[in-house]
Amino acid sequence: MKKIMFHLILILPMISLNAQKIENPVFNLWSGPYGGIPAFDAYKLKDLKPAIVAAINEKWSEVIAIADNKKPATFENTIIAMEKAGKKLSQVYAVFGIYSSNMNTPEFAPIETEMSPKFSEISNRIYQNDNLFKRIETIYNSPQKKSLTTEQQRLIWWYYSNFVREGAKADKKSKARIALINQELAGLFTKFSQNLLNDENDNHISLTENSELAGLPIDVINAYQAKSKELGTNDLGTVSNTRSSVEPFLTYSSVRPLRKMVWELFVKRGDGGDKNDNNTTLVQILKLRAEKAKLLGFKTFADWSLSNTMAQKPEKTLALMESVWKPAVAKVHKDVVEMQKIVDGEGGNFKIEPWDYRYYAEKVRKAKYDLDENDVKPYLQLEKLREGMFWVAGEIFNLNFKQVFNIPVWQADVRVFEVTNKVSGKVVGLWYFDPYARTGKRSGAWMNAYREQSKLNGGVITLVSNNCNFIKGKENEPILISWEDASTLFHEFGHALHGLSSDVTYPSLSGTNTPRDYVEFPSQVLERWLATPQVLNQFALHYKTGKPMPMALVDRIEKAATFNEGFSTVETISSALVDMKLHLLENPKIDPLEYEKEVLKSLDMPSEIVMRHRIPQFGHIFSGDDYAAGYYGYLWADVISADATEAFTETKDGLYDKEVAKRLLKYVFSVGNTVDPENAYKDFRGKAVTSDALMRARNFPIEKK
């Protein structure tokens, strides 16, 4: 997941501090090597709020100077001026985002609650400034813009279309209401996120008897014991209420009643009827979004949300999802039959339930392919796989990674790597790696860009991070991860490489600042390199012997590549379909639980699976607008990534074909949003994308056209 950061502008009542003289480390411009870096060793939480307010005031004065400029509007004095404005606010907001995602403490929560709506006000003020929009509109309609470069014309289009989409042409009354809605939404997004984080931090399952460890691999037990130690208990282990802790338990534990307890706690996050319940909050969000969409001239929020994407229309996304849904459900039914045979053969007097699925899927995998996670996991050391990612980056993108130790970090486990181009030797960025789960860190995995690559003012390199939630085991022992987690590791690194490969002029068009349903394509395509023999032979090394994964095991992995594809497709697409249908409601007065049941029933959702993200815990769509009516984007992007993979596999050198790699870098990874994504992909592939490659990749039947 790429966590989207925004260019921000806000006006607040002027504070008594002179913004230029404020003594506040958070407010100071980043200094030091690499064009300036965040001074995490100097930051104090008490400095964050005054730094935000001071940076806001400083940027607002810069924006007003642009908007009220008496000289005729030009690309330089308006568009470029906007690109340069608010440098301090961008940096302060990056630090705020790290506090929010990576170290969200009880002390930070009230600051987040108070300041989040203020950040929303930034967008309101800029988009609703008539003088500024008139200048942008004048440039957009000027015939003289044809004399500019294609990238400059794209930037003008980007500003104009964003202003229009956010209501710059709305009447005064509508603008006032939109501004209030945006601020209220910002507060609700924060509330939803904090409730979800609290439910994950405050709840867990204690393992107190040896019998409760039955079936668990030693590395999983070690991780649960480490959590108990962190909590200061004498329990034999603790299962946290997070995906990275829950899924291993559901996969390996042979204690069925405990699997059910762990599963129920996890799927009821945000749905407990207590202080952390999210149902009322999410309905408020849906209602406000629907109202906002109508004020902006759209029938539904989904229509508004998709107006700046590749898909454009909700109907196109529904058609794609439904084309994949039916064969995926059919595959699940077939797989469940195999699982039920094992249950019955073992004398189990029960039907497969959601808390059984992962456990018995592993047994089926073992029976059909002589393969289970315990065969593979000893070869998947986190640090070796990180080295493997670096090697792939060197082979495909000519990038080299070297750890540096003079860079301040926000937590002791965070490491920083200098990234250079292997050919030119030029430094292109820094990569921050925050791999481990801890209290106060949001769950899941994501990439951030703390600073975008740009060629303005002599140029600046990008600062990116990958953030994961791997569970620490015993000290000085390698951390072993699942194949699914290894894929996620490569996925998020794909986002980072998208940012690090950027070679554009303007920050607003840089790196991962692409349409939402395209941004997941570079990350998904990078997942394909994990399973290549070149990576497995060099970096999938047994944690005890150091020997590479045997070719016989590599072959079994390849044969089982599409095993359980039905499960992963159904849990993801069900979430995407519910997301889209929620945001197609014109009047969303719903009971979330009942609505969820109704939609899943209409889809013939297999009873043995639940949505990957149930509505009250669906942070992608209720912690912000970024992925709202947009979760389909993972499937949309996978259509593209599957087709792009075939561009490689059609050649004799496969995924390591140098010419195809050059095209991937030139037309996809380096161009940001300077080219329309549909055209950029055609430049890379030589043709438009179709879904046939995706169906082949998932071993689903291709419908005849």
Q: Would you kindly provide a written description of the structure presented here, covering whatever features stand out?
A:
- The protein is α+β, with helices and mostly antiparallel strands and 705 residues long.
- Helices cover 53% and strands 7% of the residues.
- It has a 5-stranded mixed sheet with strand order 3-4-5-7-6, with helices on both faces. Strands 1-2 form a two-stranded antiparallel ribbon.
- A hairpin with a 5-residue loop joins strand 4 and strand 5 (427-436).
- Helix 16 (382-397) runs parallel beside helix 17, helix 18 crosses helix 24 and helix 25 (658-669) packs antiparallel against helix 26.
- The model is unreliable at 4-20 (pLDDT under 50).
In short:
53% of the residues lie in helices and 7% in strands.
Strand order of the largest sheet: 3-4-5-7-6
Portion in helices: 40-55%
* Total beta strands: 7
Provide mean pLDDT, rounded: 94
Class based on secondary structure composition and strand pairing: alpha+beta
Poorly predicted tracts of residues:
4-20
Describe the global form. Answer: globular
List the topology elements.
Blueprint: H1 48-67, H2 75-84, H3 87-102, H4 109-127, H5 130-141, H6 150-165, H7 172-202, E1 204-207, H8 218-231, E2 237-240, H9 243-252, H10 256-267, H11 279-295, H12 301-305, H13 314-345, H14 354-369, H15 373-376, H16 382-397, E3 399-404, E4 415-421, E5 427-436, E6 446-451, E7 462-470, H17 483-500, H18 516-526, H19 533-539, H20 551-559, H21 565-582, H22 592-602, H23 619-622, H24 633-649, H25 658-669, H26 677-685, H27 692-697
Parallel strand pairs: 5-7
Antiparallel strand pairs: 1-2, 3-4, 4-5, 6-7
Helix pairs in contact: 1-3, 1-4, 1-5, 4-7, 5-6, 7-11, 9-10, 9-14, 13-14, 13-21, 16-17, 16-19, 17-18, 18-24, 25-26
